[in-house]
Design goal:
Layout: H1 2-26, H2 33-42, H3 45-49, E1 52-60, E2 63-68, H4 69-82, E3 85-96, E4 99-108, E5 111-120, E6 131-139
Length: 141
């Protein structure tokens, strides 16, 4: 009987730890750049554009500016059509207040690009979710 009780306690602790880890992923420790990086490395414009704010600053190879989500999606889609991603790695992150910033290296179409991403994580101003406010892709010199 004592072994059965011990097993129940161990299983309960493991389940509680699993729920805690899941809650942390959605909480303060959640890294918004994990899914964003995945979508960039896959060239998945649909999934990436879901992270775009309704209006954002976007520059892709010196083209762009302040754009709607749909305009930004078309710009990124055109880039991925001409430069098939092979890999993407975030090399630097920082954050202050409700903003997070990342720099990353993108290898696409046989070239290397620097990607800059600003994400607004202030859920009050973004309707409850993190949104990309600025997105830039430029050739590395």
């Amino acid at each position: 009987m004592q072994n059965g009780f011990r097993t129940i306690i161990v299983l309960g602790c493991l389940l509680a730890a699993g729920f805690n880890a899941s809650a942390q992923q959605q909480g303060a420790n959640y890294d918004v750049f994990v899914p964003i990086s995945k979508y960039i490395s896959q060239g998945n414009t649909d999934a990436l554009s879901a992270w775009f704010a309704d209006n954002l600053d976007i520059v892709v190879l010196s083209k762009g500016g302040n754009s709607s989500r749909n305009q930004a999606k078309l710009l990124v889609d055109a880039f991925f059509s001409n430069h098939t991603p092979r890999s993407f790695e975030v090399t630097y992150t920082a954050g202050r207040g409700g903003m997070k910033y990342a720099l990353g290296n993108l290898n696409a179409g046989g070239e290397n690009f620097l990607v800059t991403i600003f994400v607004n994580c202030n859920t009050e101003s973004t309707g409850g979710s993190s949104r990309i406010q600025q997105f830039k892709i430029e050739r590395m010199q």
